[in-house]
Amino acid sequence: EGKSGIPDWRWLVLWGCALVALRAGVAHYPSDQDASHWAKEILARAPSPVHEVVFVEDMPRYGLHLYLDTEVETLSLDELANQPKFNPEYDESLATEIAESADNPGVVYVTKKKTWGEVQTHVERLGFRAVPRGEPFHGRIIFVVARPG
User: Fold this and answer.
1) pLDDT score for 121
2) Global pTM?
3) What span, in angstroms and rounded, lies between the C-alpha atoms of 57 and 76?
């Protein structure tokens, strides 16, 4: 028995119950990192089947690969010179991605609302349009890139 008169094993049971309750609470807490919610939102806004999701100047949600069975990348607005070869911050530049996938309607882009204007300007300079799909989601704009017209 412990000093409080409660057997020591009961403390262990109480501690276990507290951990289970905490885990259950955290599992139901909404998070902008939840890939299943991101996948649902992207699918609802995508004009066609999604083949790739690219995050422009934003943290990628690699868990989307599990829900959408698609490639997930992170892009820089700037050209990438002198980027480390091991564990680079970005996969490629926005210009490179658009050049590679200009006619692929299955590419969906995501960027923060605060960088949206800059992203639109970059896309327009490349001769394309950035077309938002629906309302912002967790402070992000989900969009596609289209040819003018």
Assistant:
1) 95
2) 0.76
3) 5
